[in-house]
Design goal:
single chain, alpha+beta, 434 Repressor (Amino-terminal Domain), six-stranded antiparallel β-sheet
Amino acid sequence: MSKSGRKHKFGEKIRAVRERKGFTLKEVAAKAAVSESLVSQIERNKVSPSVDTLLAVADALEIDYEYLFRDHRQKKRVTIVRADQRQSMVRNKVSLQQLSVLDEIPREHSIEAFLLEIAPGGEKGDPEYGHSGREFGVILEGSAQLDYGYETYELNRGDTVSFQSDIPHLFKNSGDTVLKAIWVVTPPRRLFRN
């Protein structure tokens, strides 16, 4: 079952292709090395076949996998964080507001995004330690200084920055107004629990 609670229904596609090609249930079952009854149940969406069985039936009918799974790929979940429902946290002079919601199981391309606000004199990060992954930021307001390893970079409104996170880094508000930035981290640090 998908996260939305719906089963992915391949049966209609399999039946349509089988009938269009003029194969009987028995012929498909023999080619896929499964029972005729199982093919019938798959076509009627009465069972959720194993991936191996589904692919065997698809191969028997010479169905392109992309065609078979296209609808499944188009039903992936979209998450929205409403402006008035963002989780937030404040530590010292740093405020983070959650802009993205994480899957329960982080995936290969999972990201975590924040609206980052740092008061004058505030900073985020650690000059001694890094962590795995990458970070990307867009400066919305104010000015910042990024200490990255032994290098220092000045950033202003409209500038973007990206870097490997395994180098020690410290992000500071170098101005006299609140620094605002959109900040994206991958893999997620999981600062907010959903």
